[in-house]
């Protein structure tokens, strides 16, 4: 199983980051081994009846990295590239993220290898319900709490809640987060990740002595996270000059109207063809001059090939694992880019998921203002902690963030001991 994970480039990247951090922390070999490898790796087959009457089998995964600090928390994604190694890497990053943010969770991640864009709502519902049924022995509000991710949304979470609650015989709202508000979801959850990205990006601009109203930003990825990051940045006064998604890329030095582009995407299914900006090669967009670059799509998009060409002052990692270790080395040597690493930058989603879980346990709802205010406070605290630690130890920001998160997990592992 280790060999299968290590064959995946995303897991290799996560493992390389961990090994570097473990060396810095001087973790003992036994604690290092226990922290690195996931507790559970689940693979299930999901047969469903397609609308044309044919039966098709999909493969689904769930990785629970550790439960030492509490139930695992992490998203469920529907995407054609999903495989076990990628899911394991994302679960590992989520583990360090929750520890860094002080959340009482371990890291989890799930996925189904499929293309939701080519599936009907009925097919997606059947697949979601079958996947949830297969996972029933391994999930629960105190064991594993899922949330939306790429290709999934609040409706998918509602279907999962229904399967689990029907099995339990009563409503169990804490089984998932990111669900509809009228099913005891949380206000502010949809915007949380993008809001947090924008909030920290503006704090980084302030650290760099760049006024928000004079700043520009480029967003790679215009899904839920990219949209809300762009919208919140524009509300801070930052001009959005470039945006891309799977259909194409746009560039407009005078600024892009985010809401108008969103309306275009709703009508046409992507940013391609938007009249308010010029088309540009997606790879070229990443290296255009800007104050804030936000990779908000897939992993491994900042590479050794383009890291030296970046013209941003702040690199705000809204996606998980967007920067390869080779690119990290180049960026560290350059020394002119303020990196907000992924496990800090995109932690707004899991933080508000924690708020939702707490509200479900209490059976008490908070207002959107309360949620976002609490989120800003926690994000600011974690940001200041990472930057202060990096300055104190003279560390790159990613290594500082990982060290704080991994040490928290390692300490708990050491304290709890090894069950014989």
What would you say this structure looks like, in words?
With about 425 residues, the protein is an alpha/beta fold. It has two domains: about 1-20 and about 25-175, Rossmann fold, CATH 3.40.50.10860; about 190-345, NAD(P)-binding Rossmann-like Domain (Rossmann fold), CATH 3.40.50. It is built from 15 helices and twelve strands. The chain has helices spanning about 1-5, 10-25, 30-35, 85-100, 120-135, 155-170, 190-205, 225-235, 260-270, 280-285, 325-335, 340-345, 350-360, 370-395, 395-415, and strands at about 40-50, 55-65, 70-80, 105-115, 145-150, 215-220, 240-245, 250, 280, 290-295, 315, 340. The protein has a seven-stranded mixed beta sheet with strand order 9-8-7-6-10-11-12. Strands 1-2-4-3-5 form a five-stranded mixed beta sheet. Strand 6 (about 215-220), helix 8 (about 225-235) and strand 7 (about 240-245) form a beta-alpha-beta unit. Helix 3 packs across helix 15 (about 395-415) and helix 14 (about 370-395) crosses helix 15 (about 395-415). The radius of gyration is 21 Å and the shape is globular. The model has no long low-confidence stretch (mean pLDDT about 95). Keywords: Oxidoreductase. GO terms for molecular function: oxidoreductase activity. Pfam families: ELFV_dehydrog, ELFV_dehydrog_N. InterPro entries: Aminoacid_DH-like_N_sf, Glu/Leu/Phe/Val/Trp_DH, Glu/Leu/Phe/Val/Trp_DH_C, Glu/Leu/Phe/Val/Trp_DH_dimer, Glu/Leu/Phe/Val_DH_AS, Glu_DH, NAD(P)-bd_dom_sf, NAD_bind_Glu_DH. Belongs to the Glu/Leu/Phe/Val dehydrogenases family.
